[in-house]
Amino acid sequence: MDYVDIGLWIGQTLLALGMAGAGGMKAMSPREKLLPQMKWVARFPVWAPRAIGLAEVAGAIGLVVPWASGIVPVLTPVAAACLLVLMVGAVKVHVDDGEALHGIAPAVLGALALVVAVGRAVSLS
Description:
The protein is mainly α. Helices cover about 75% and strands about 0% of the residues.
């Protein structure tokens, strides 16, 4: 295991923890509880926060399990790329809502997802 691999594992773990935490909260909390904290929930369909949360949790699992198990490890960079797309959408939603500062966290998570996606894709070749 070299320094790049260790760095990618740290990035994967941090990203997975962030996605699992945020996604779990969205997936498990009732819409009424999310509304005061998340302005965007009001203009999205009722099912959207739960679906986004489940996608984030699935992405968190996909960041770690395939690479750690060695079973279809290509799913790790795919999961990271999907989370990147999700985070780009989150940044856009926050900017559209006039909450650019709230877009910083998804921008950082998106940057981390990009690093993991590229790093693990390169590791496969």
